[in-house]
Amino acid sequence: MDLRTLRYFVAVAEELHFGRAAARLHMSQPPLSRAIKQLEADLGAVLLHRSAAGVTLTPAGAALLDEARTLLDRADQARIRVAAAAGAATITVGILGDSSDRGATRLAAEYRRRHPGVEVRVRETDLTDPTCGLRAGLVDVALTRAPFDETGLTVHELRADPVGAVLRADDPLARRDHLTLADLADRPWFQFPDGTDPIWQSYWNGGEPREGPVVRAVQECLQAVLWNGTVGMTPLGHHPPEELAVVPMIDMAPSRVVAAWNEGDANPMIRSFVQIATAAYRE
Fold this sequence. Notes:
With about 280 residues, the chain is of the alpha+beta class. Helices cover about 40% and strands about 20% of the residues. Helix 4 (about 60-85) crosses helix 8.
């Protein structure tokens, strides 16, 4: 029973689906199934019930899941501590420069508490790169917002935030309790520069082609609203200047806060980062 097989088992136990687990592990399903069967043979216990309805954990499987998570976490911590002692423990985190977020503040505090010997380098990017330099190899993991092109990346959702339209406070629509995309159809919307991820641009334009001023950063977007009456979009909970108002949009999908990293990257510092982030953003 090695650590790799335990990672295989944890993936299947959490997904309760061999196909999804195989995709998560970036492997094909047959060798994953063989590895789980060999693990069951080694332990002398059935860990998973397989049926047409799906996969469920047996009592033995549930017990192993708890133990496996603990063992894998300890193994990761050991690797990180050794790297830190050797002066080689560094992780570069890309952060989307959209605002301060209490989830990120909790994450930073807990990561520092868990890994005091790890050097954390932060690279903040503007709104034109939702992967925060991940594709260019400038960061190890990105703390950002979806949706964007996820090709070659692993993306883990941390939280989903409803969104609202940013308007001038004296705009008649700013007095509404909520808005729809149809209410804003004839307004100018902010645009990102050419070359920006089209999935990202489409989301922030409500899924429709729009016209309006080109912006790169949150402050530029807010200034476009203030000076030109442009429609902006923001996750609810962000607080603009008093000259602006945020009205909830009832027909836009939530903005998802995610952690993203390159597929197949087995860096234990990334795994620990995502684990800590999941807890920090759940609070």
